[in-house]
Amino acid sequence: MEPISAEPSWGRVLATTIRLWVGRLDPVGFRQQRTPGRPRRNWSGEHSRRLRRLSGWRLIALLVVLAVIAAAVTGFVGTASRATRTPSAGNPASRGAYVPSPQAQAAAWISDQVSSDAMVACYPQMCAALQQRGVAADRLLPLRAGSAGPIDADVIVTSPSTGSQLTDAYAPALMASFGSGLRQIEVRATEPGGTAAYESALRADLTARKYAGSELLRNSRIQFTARETSQLRAGEVDSRVLATLAALASQYSFRVTSFSDASPGVRALFRQATIAPGGEGLAGAAALVNQQDPPFLPTHVMIGHAAAGQAALSIEFAAPSPLGLLTPTLEVHRQHAVPATVLADALPLG
């Protein structure tokens, strides 16, 4: 089978056409194209006369026309080639990838991450978006111009149009942020006492989380990597996660492979822990965690596989992270001047 030759380019075709056209004016070529039986003509003289009649400006005009035709044809071919080209799978623009708006992202995050019994204050458009995501209407408190503050709300969804006065007075704790500028959407946790009360409670809760983290590091039935050890010492892990790990360690041996959170746009407490077994299965631990009562009942408990293929248990709690779960126990131990075993009286599993 003969190989299929590539189709010549338009530039090459045009060059060949010009060469043939010039060849027709070549006296040698014309002398070779002699019809038998006819007398030989003096093509050289006739060709000279034609060249004299074809003045310089006409020759230039002809060349310009040919160049314009070549450019138009080449542009047409290039456009057709680009139009018929198969879109690249690695280019999102070629696939027409859809990017949700900040409002849609916030609504999806709230429906998945915020506690199902939390009351949410929102402006009307946001409330409608939340209902579309399955959030019950009786959990929504619409924010309207001139209305009183969201006293009964646990979470407030704000935008630049709602102003900062509302967040300073009722919702100082930023939980998640979506978008930027005039389209930015923020999800905040409320504090009845305002910013001052929130900052005081946050400082006390941080101290309690650091003590609890130190207790877990001394537990011989739990193993931590250097990264998780640093996060525990810094008090960056949610109190519910700390108490649950301590309770599981009373019955199982395991190692913590990671702490994580799902709060975009803000550095929040780690509400999720992934653990791998140390010789025992994870089904019993998952069942035990799923039997707890709020606030120690996780929203997501799943047995999956880590990157290495080993089975792992993921435990995730809902937002917002409550403050003060461990603080009363820590204060009691301080008053009695005994070593702080903060988690001993806060174990959700008894």
DSSP strand content: 5-15%
Averaged pLDDT, please?
76
Low-confidence stretches: 1-5, 25-35, 38-44, 73-94
Q: Strands across the major sheet, in which order? A: 2-1-3-5-4
Radius of gyration: 38 Å
Q: Which helices and strands, and how do they pair?
A:
Blueprint: H1 10-24, H2 27-32, H3 43-53, H4 56-83, H5 92-95, H6 102-113, E1 120-122, H7 124-132, E2 140-142, E3 155-158, H8 165-170, E4 173-178, E5 185-189, H9 194-217, E6 222-224, H10 226-233, H11 239-249, E7 254-260, E8 272-277, H12 283-290, E9 300-305, E10 311-316, H13 327-335
Parallel strand pairs: 1-2, 1-3, 6-7
Antiparallel strand pairs: 3-5, 4-5, 7-8, 8-10, 9-10
Helix pairs in contact: 9-10, 9-11
Features:
350 residues, alpha/beta, 5-stranded mixed β-sheet, 10 strands, 43% helix, globular
Question: Could you characterize the architecture of this molecule?
Answer:
With 350 residues, the chain is an alpha/beta fold. It has three domains: 74 residues, no CATH class; 89 residues; 150 residues, no CATH class. It is 43% helix and 14% strand. The protein contains 13 helices and ten strands.
Give a brief rundown of this model.
The protein is of the alpha/beta class and 350 residues long. 43% of the residues lie in helices and 14% in strands.
